[in-house]
Amino acid sequence: MRTLILLTAILVALPTVAAQAPPTVYEPEGNDVPPQMMDFDAENNRFVAHPGWIDGKLIHYYKFRMYVPPNYGTDDGGLEKVPIQELYLPTTDGTLAGVPADQRPVLSEYPVAGNTDYSDFQHVVLVDVGGGYAANSHTDAAGVLAAGSRVDTGIIANVPVVPLGSTLEDPAELGTDAPIEPWMAWYEGDEAQTFVFETTSAEFADFINPRTRSGAFAEAGSGYEAAVSPQMATLAGVNALPIWHVNQYTTGVEAGVNNGGPSGVGQRNVIDADRLDPGYSPLWQVWWATQVPPGYSADEAVSAEQITDESGFAIAKTPMYVNCPNIGPHGGSPADRSVDAGLAFDPVARVDEGGSVVLEGSIPMQAGVEVTAMAGDAVLGTATTAMMGLYTFTVEAGDLPEGLNTVTFEDPGGAVVGTYEVQVGSADHGAGAASEDASALGTEGLIVLLVVAGAILVFARFGK
């Protein structure tokens, strides 16, 4: 009996080891690599700092949760609405100041595959537990809410839940870790990990920065701080900004020099607002370039103002949304090579007799699709889409009559997915023809949107 009592006492005295939460969507089982983690550095357990462009300057951003139908819903008016979940913080006096120094947030949802209620964007809910509370006494949502009175703050913060032990790449020194510490959390009694980026509240920024950054890195303007973005979200939903997605195009890309992400062999994407800018939000809607000007090459478009229909781009505003918090100097940093933010593009491919031109387009996220190049009723040939739906086709001048020609690309169902003008010889292109062609592009743009909608349904299977 004495031995049993002693053994029981030893077991009671042993410290409790927190169990680990289940694998996140960044840690899929098997060998499949879904788009959600295509750019996650699994070998080093690190989120990559992707380079992009803003007004001719380099910018960096991380990529977290992807929201694609059906892992988000719509509001009462049918508008797309990325969800907001709750996180809970026990407090001894009903304010952020009363949150114990070592207290971890308690999560209401977790990013496992198939959980459509999870969101990186979280409403900070305080729970007034009164005096005498010991930090981390409650480690699940039900327990915390039962322990005190709920205080809705209205504060929204960008708090992605990530794999345990993961880090963030430093944009100032690629391949190393950024000076941002995780905010460890609880989910259903298990240990979980988060990082904190933008928030709608200056008070919450003052609360979280010293807990997750050290010294100057916690200060506003450091490029690493949790920034205040009041317009990012309300309890009604998260605001979104566009990202012009050209990463699917590979022409002119030199690995390690001017490549972007999420595909390391693709070009850099373009945005038009940085954190601290009026209207900024880290939630970006993917505006997919389904067509680029003839002969387009990496880093030629470095500003959103350049990417227009008149310049030969075709853009599909997809129902894909991605949480991409910016990191590094506000407003970007000097480019690593000379660029011309005012560069104009010729939407017409001009080919001398005996020459050729490469035309490129993309059907979002649809690889292995055969597209047919047509000039009127004549079939010029076929091409098969690669990763992210890229197709590339070389038009020979000898295959077309002299003058202005319209070359279209059709998917297997006969839908037009790209329209290009090819001028063989030196004939001028009149304004009237340009007007007609612009109208045609508008009609085909609607068809592209229908194609995109179908593509997203396929993509949704992998992006949860």
SSE diagram, text form:
Blueprint: H1 2-13, E1 19-20, E2 40-41, E3 46-47, E4 50-54, E5 57-61, E6 66-67, E7 73-74, E8 80-81, E9 85-91, E10 106-107, E11 121-128, H2 141-146, E12 149-158, E13 161-162, E14 167-168, E15 183-187, E16 190-194, H3 202-212, E17 233-234, E18 237-238, E19 241-245, E20 269-270, E21 283-291, E22 314-323, E23 326-327, E24 348-351, E25 356-362, E26 370-375, E27 378-384, E28 390-396, E29 403-410, E30 416-424, H4 431-463
Parallel strand pairs: 1-16, 3-14, 4-20, 9-11, 19-21, 24-30
Antiparallel strand pairs: 2-3, 4-5, 5-23, 6-22, 7-8, 9-10, 11-12, 13-16, 15-16, 17-18, 21-22, 25-28, 26-27, 26-29, 29-30
Concise account of the structure shown:
The chain is α+β, with helices and mostly antiparallel strands. The chain is 13% helix and 31% strand.
Q: What features would you describe in this structure?
A:
- This protein is of the alpha+beta class and 464 residues long.
- The protein folds into three domains: 17-47 and 83-238, no CATH class; 242-326, no CATH class; 348-463, Immunoglobulins (Immunoglobulin-like), CATH 2.60.40.
- Helices cover 13% and strands 31% of the residues.
Count of the domains: 3
Fraction in helix: 10-25%
Biggest sheet, in brief?
Answer: 5 strands, mixed
Integer-rounded radius of gyration: 26 Å
The termini sit apart by: 55 Å
Return the structural class: alpha+beta
Number of strands: 30
Report mean pLDDT, rounded to a whole number: 84
β-strand percent reads 25-35%
What's the shape?
A: elongated
Poorly predicted regions are: 1-17, 429-464
What's the helix count? 4
Strand order across the largest sheet? 24-30-29-26-27
